[in-house]
Amino acid sequence: MKKLILTLIFLSSTFAFAQISESSSLNSGKWTFGGSASINGTFGTYSTFGVSVAPRVGYKISENLEFGGIASFSLLDSDLYSTTLFGIGPYANYYFARNFYATAQFQEYIITQKLKGTKDRTGRDEAALYIGGGYMTKVGNNFYMQIGAMYNVLWKQNSSIFSSGFTPQVGVVFGL
Hints:
Blueprint: H1 2-22, E1 31-42, E2 48-60, E3 65-78, E4 81-96, E5 100-115, E6 121-140, E7 143-152, E8 166-174
Antiparallel strand pairs: 1-2, 1-8, 2-3, 3-4, 4-5, 5-6, 6-7, 7-8
């Protein structure tokens, strides 16, 4: 039941973000706008709560090639620690057969962690180079939903803040 509620919250926040993008008067010809938003959590011995937003702006160089910038912000709070991540960087998407895309995205993350019950706060940077692709479907006039996966080729198991190099991807794009 809790997973169902969290899934519904995630989908609601994604479509709410899409509505914000859709009402933008900046949409013209070659510019694209989109991103993703999520809420997640776990319950049990150690509870966690997380929220994340990742807006993006792109420019279509050609019908199939898009370059742009993406920013991301994530907050994770648990019984033991809290973590904030801010990332920013460029991306490139190549669209083929109008329903599929390949993507490359670089993110430089600024990470801050605080252990609960202490004054200890640590900060560091981490770079990520994601390569991936996926499927997209039209859900409205110049409005698409993307579902795919990416892999961080710079990920190292013992030195990364991320538990895996694999990242599922669900988002929206307006303006393609």
